[in-house]
Amino acid sequence: MAGFNKVFNTYEEALSGLSDSMTVIAGGFGLCGIPEGLIAHIKTMGVKDLTVVSNNCGVDGFGLGLLLEDKQISKMVSSYVGENALFEKQLLNGELEVELTPQGTLAEKMRAGGAGIPAFYTATGYGTPVGEGKEVKEFDGRPYILEHAITGDFAIVKAWKADKFGNCVFRHTAQNFNPMAATAGKITVVEVEEIVEPGTLSPSEIHTPGIYVNRIIKGEFEKRIERRVVAKEDV
User: pLDDT tens digits, residue range 24-64?
Assistant: First the structure.
């Protein structure tokens, strides 16, 4: 069974083959469940002209925001852009192409890509700038727009646990976009908190089967809080 071991010991090995002008799908929501070490190593690699597909682009100086510092991202496909001043600056200066996509549509684009479904119809975005130029069909008297699936050259994902065969478990809200992203990459790299032996995980707790995962690496995570909100004492 040793041939099924998908564990890589270094980020260089885990991201081998990533090069300029590729499309990278990244899991995470805000700073929750992001593959911190993989993102940081992509910055170190210096690859350029990347198309990045993710819910958002991190924050200034952390997460995917690191890749904006040296203008490594040329296009961002995301649903939210509000926590990153550098993102805003590059967008307004015309240095960064941004394709805003409704959040549920973005999740479905990843899921469809991973399932081999080339496109799907959704009512979300019809009659708004999101739907401009897209094919429209009516179903039961309601208009829907055609959205195309997304796949990437690489998918980078953060999981809580994985066994050496690549079966993954996500913890609480860190699950977010990670399971969909994991299915949609030609090469899927999962950064995990804990690697366990095959057979340790119950089949019922596995969120992403190892068939979707190519490489696993154990990371260390800072787990920053994007925005801390606390209740007032008199509430």
Answer: 999 999 999 999 999 999 999 999 999 999 999 999 999 99
Rounded CA Rg of the chain: 18
d(CA 64, CA 116): 27
Partner residues linked to 62 by β-bridges: 59
Is residue 120 within 8 A of residue 152, CB to CB? The reply is no
Please check whether residue 69 is in contact with residue 43, taking contact to mean a CB–CB distance below 8 angstroms. Answer: yes
Token code pair at residue 56: 């958002």
Question: How many helices (H) and strands (E) in the chain?
Answer: 6, 11
Distance CA 50, CA 56 (A): 15
The number of beta carbons lying within 10 Å of the beta carbon of residue 195 is 17
- 199 with 163: CB under 8 angstroms? yes
Burial label, 96 (beta-carbon count in 10 A; 0-12, 13-18, 19+): buried
Query: At 235, is the pLDDT very low, low, confident or very high (cuts 50, 70, 90)?
Result: low
- Strands 119-122 and 136-139, bridge-based pairing: unpaired
**pTM for this structure?**
0.93
Which stretch of DSSP H or E encloses residue 180?
A: helix 178-183
* Burial class (CB within 10 angstroms; exposed 0-12, middle 13-18, buried 19+) of 179: buried
2-218 CATH: 3.40.1080.10
